[in-house]
Amino acid sequence: QVQFEISQWWRPHQILSHQLAQLHTVMIHAAKTTPFYRDRLEAVLAKSENGLSLAAFRQIPILTRSEFQDAGDSINSTAVPASHGAIIDIKTSGSTGQPLALKGTQLARSYSSVISLRSELWHRRDLTQKSLSFRTMKPGESVRRLSARAPVVNAGESIRVSMAQPASVLLESVKTEDPAYIVIHPSVLKELLYVSQEQGYQPASLKEVCTMGEILYPELRERCQRQWNVKVSDLYSCEEFGILTLQCPEHPHYHVQSENVLIEVLRPDNTACKPGEIGKTVISSLNNFATPILRYENGDMAEVGEPCSCGRGLPVLKRIIGRVRNTAVLPNGERIMPNLSTGPLLNELPIKHFQLVQKTTRLIEARLVVGRVLTKSEELALMDYFNKGWRHEFNFAFVYLDE
Questions:
Q1: pLDDT tens, 179-200?
Q2: What is the mean pLDDT of the chain?
Q3: Could you tell me the end-to-end alpha-carbon distance of the chain, in angstroms, rounded to an integer?
Q4: Residues 171, 196: contact at Cβ < 8 Å?
Q5: 3-class secondary-structure state, position 24
Q6: R_g over Cα of the chain
Q7: Residue in 270, 317, 261, 276 with CA at minimum distance from that of residue 59
Q8: Which of 201, 203, 245, 279 is in Cβ range 3.0-4.6 Å of 265 for a Cys bridge?
Q9: Neighbour count for residue 366 (Cβ, 10 Å)
Q10: Quick check: helix, strand or coil at residue 92?
């Protein structure tokens, strides 16, 4: 943590220099001990005997999710350094339809622990206070109580509750535990806010809501701040790498956790995006020697931000946009990601859940769970709103569901 306190203030070129030096070490290890990388890295390593440049690093082919899956055990190291500790099996959720199985180490996991503590320190949370986390848990397990929520003296209690329960049950746990901090997925937070509003409940001791695991839309952040009168902070993570970014303590944008990962945001031609541009995220792990992951396209999109006025040299992502798969196909075959705010859905109409399913290149089915059926004029306004987001005129069929 002391080292991280120092490195966050390095200048961007200094951070990148250290990242490339570490990646060079990872690449040498991967080429020697993983069959998958033996040929993949040979040419780049041959040019990098005196050090790795960013230009040379970008000559490594981008690793797709399908390639990762097909590689199987050949992408795992056959000789993990003993000093990196126990080897850990990791499985992704398969939210993209392509689950992955890989391995990590105790050392790599410790980096995520340090980044978690960094988040607590950045946002000046009171570590003696109680935290309530809504998480995925084993079948049959609904509550787990931990004596300490952080690796510090006199840390407060941490309660984990299975989020696979109705929102009304989850809200009861908030009432019972009365935590100072809630850790939650945005979609679950949205449900809690609905139920809380229906019941007229206001958390008494809550200081902050910490979101993770999904895209946090600005409108949901604003609604939570307005309804519960608390700060909302977000982080971006995935199973393959752990925590990728933390929200800046002074701004709503994100700082890449460069001590643990190198994140590239790339255009369709694989050139680097500039601030203000949106591209695909390509991620490399600096510390996992059990399953080396180099230039992995994880399927997310992000917008590059300007350097931060807070003074930290850690790269900025202005926002995480979402999955590449959330695109519509136009009649000419072009794919386009909608530029949609969820404001009208969350704040102006009685819509609890929505799902847009493209049936043909001209027809989209809008599936809605609502407090009441929308009027015809509301449906027409919503259709117009969606089409403006896509900059294309689709036809819409509205389907109302109970859940």
A1: 999 999 988 898 899 899 999 9
A2: 91
A3: 45
A4: yes
A5: helix
A6: 22
A7: 270
A8: 279
A9: 20
A10: coil
